[in-house]
Prior knowledge:
GO terms for molecular function: potassium:proton antiporter activity; sodium:proton antiporter activity. Keywords: Antiport, Cell membrane, Ion transport, Membrane, Sodium, Sodium transport, Transmembrane, Transmembrane helix, Transport. Belongs to the monovalent cation:proton antiporter 1 (CPA1) transporter (TC 2.A.36) family. This is Na+/H+ antiporter. By secondary structure, the chain is an all-alpha fold. The chain is built from 21 helices and no strands. It has helices at about 1-20, 25-35, 50-65, 70-75, 75-100, 105-115, 125-130, 135-165, 170-205, 205-225, 230-245, 250-275, 280-285, 290-325, 335-340, 345-355, 360-395, 400-430, 435-460, 470-495, 500-520. The radius of gyration is 27 Å and the shape is elongated.
Amino acid sequence: MGLQLLLVAGGAIAVAAVARRRGWPAPLLLVAAGLLVSPMVPAVPLQPELVLFVFLPPLLYSAALDSSYLRLRDVKRAVALLSVGLVVFTAAVVGFVVHLLLPDLPLALAFALGAIIAPPDAVAAVAVGRRLGLPRRALTILVGESLFNDATALTLYRVAIGAAVGGTVDLLEGVGEFLFAAAGGVLIGLALAFVFAWLFQRTRDSLVENTLMLLIPFAAYLAAESVHASGVIAVVIVGLYLGNRMHLRGFGTRLVSDAVWKVTDFFLETIVFALIGLQLVTVIEGITGYSPWEVAGYAAAVLAVTIVSRFVWVLAATSLTWLLRRGDRPPTRQQTVILGWAGMRGVVSLAAAFAIPPDIPARDRAMMLFLTFTTVIGTLLIQGTTFPTLIRRLGVSSDQEVYEDRLAEAAAQQAALEAGLAELERLVAEQGEPDEIQKQVIDQLREKSWRRSLSAWERLGGGTGQGGSETPSSLYRRLRRDMLQAEREVFVRLRDERRLDDEVLREVMAQLDFEEAMMER
Length: 521
């Protein structure tokens, strides 16, 4: 299993690298590659525990850490309608349709299948949306939905599976379990958030803080799941709380944290989407007692119902939001269509299907796994591949938001510049008359502040001056990059000549790299 995962990881990273170089959506290419090679390689089983306890917590935590609590609060009604209402609605509709199509499948298992299929995975949609400039509000809704919908779906799944195994369905007990899981997840998440925030205030060590950050999602998930609360909600709450307070950490912690979670996300997501495609043979082998046409018809019907039910609910939710008119403003018609089409399913659905207990009859279990797999693949390949075209055709753009962001940044840089210069003048006045060397240092500080503010205003024009000429800031960055490269070559040559130690080389290279990173936008 370890060697298989290593080979999967290596192949997935290679495919993702090609996708990034070509500007293609990596998740879709990884799924397609997995489907193509699945018949030619040994089966790579998807372990539910691996997905739910190893992959899911850090991916959720990273998304929550990078999300805006304030923006999520602005769209809280839309997020709640999608992450709770839509999941319940989809589970019910899919459950009834599956029970009609397969009368021999118990109703509880049909609803369990609905709960498995219900939660979309917004990773692919958000990746495409960001690349094509989807408005921030729509992206925030998609991210917020993906943060919380797994908790609703997994709770419904546990209730339905329990009813299938136990033979009875107690609606009141199911609602109580859901409320307990949600409330327990929130309380455990808040408790752990306060504890870790208290620890961070006393460590002040970027290495220690980021090491703790890697442990937080697993600690939160396991703590909540151990008392049958929602581990998903606990992880999300901790991530949102600590992400909103990241400004209190040191600059080293923020720089390292950003790099650590980018690498973690890329690594885990590439493996996850590759594993989805690689399940093709495993899923098909378990189907017995049905003709190929019957199986294809069932899969197409469930896929169609899943896609249509999201559109129906999004339209209804948009109308309800418009009627309430409190807090949330309804999305535009174009955004409503985009939200309705952004229903790609992911690995959590497959993991839940693979986790169906062995007490369930093998024939029913195989059919549920197959329908889950075809729905996941169908939504990824159909909706995922057409999503970019839909965004372009509808003319949805974030150009105005980008301009407003740059204008706000320039104004903020100006205000910060004035505050910084005022503090500099106060310190100089307290110090007394500076000597020549001190005057040069003070002038350099003033010039650096003005250059940063000027760069922010220049970006309003797209980085070009009048007549398309190069702006002073752009010229400075271009020339300074060339100078830095020349300096690096000298340091490396001196190291190769044994006139400079490798440890010294790493230190000076880090200084040059940090300066170049500061110039990047």
